[in-house]
Structures are given as structure tokens and as C-alpha cells.
Design a protein that fits this description.
alpha+beta, 4-stranded antiparallel β-sheet, 4 strands, P-II family nitrogen regulator, N-reg_PII/ATP_PRibTrfase_C
Length: 119
């Protein structure tokens, strides 16, 4: 099992979400509002506006998925989260050794579509 995390532009979230729904074995996602900035040396000269407003709103997406679905999920996030401009974000994968559903204590890898809760 893998955890896929991505920091993306808030305006790209609907596009990423729509793309993820089309992936087989796509389980669900958690989204949080975050703020961040890119290290100045990596983006070159900054203007006055950037100096005064260091933190930019972003969205942190977290997905716990079967290993076999991870690559497709990352590709969907990269393709549909991209604008081609500095600040598009970052995506990474972390291995998950174990996870359990709180509701019944079942291992998360046994979760299927019928187990998803919408509220």
C-alpha cells in the first residue's frame, strides 16, 4: 500500500478529482487547505508583490491506495494538476506498512468501493 501526497493549486483540484474518479482501484482522497512558498534561489528574482506575500494558498491531497494503483494516480495528479508555471506543486509517494479502518478494525487493504463513506 502507498500514500500519495500532492500539493497543488486550488484551481486545479476539480480537474485532478475528476481524473482520479476514472482510475481503477482509486479509493478516496483527503484534502486540506495549506499555504507555502518556493525557496527563492529555485525561482530566480522576485518582485515586490512576492516579497510581501510569501505564502500562497495551496491544497494538500492525500490518498491511501493499493500499490498497483499508485503510478496511475501520480500520473493523473501530474497531468491534471499542471499549468506549466512555477508553483504548480509537488507529488510524492510514501510506503505504508499497515493501516486499519477505525470503524471495524479491518485492514485498510481490504477496503472496497462499498466501504466508502460519503458523510
Amino acid at each position: 500500500m502507498k500514500e500519495i501526497r500532492a500539493i497543488i493549486r486550488p484551481t486545479r483540484l476539480p480537474h485532478v478529482q475528476a481524473a482520479l474518479r476514472g482510475i481503477t482501484n482509486y479509493p478516496a482522497l483527503v484534502v486540506g487547505k495549506v499555504e507555502g512558498f518556493t525557496a527563492p534561489p529555485s525561482i530566480g528574482p522576485r518582485n515586490l508583490k512576492e516579497e510581501l506575500t510569501d505564502f500562497v494558498p495551496k491544497v494538500l491531497v492525500s490518498i491511501l491506495a493499493p500499490t498497483e494503483a499508485a503510478d496511475a494516480i501520480v500520473q493523473a495528479i501530474m497531468q491534471h494538476g499542471r499549468t506549466g508555471k512555477i508553483g504548480d506543486g509537488l507529488v510524492w509517494i510514501t510506503p505504508v506498512d499497515q493501516a486499519w479502518r477505525i470503524r471495524d478494525g479491518a485492514p485498510a487493504e481490504t477496503m472496497n468501493t462499498a466501504d466508502k463513506v460519503t458523510d
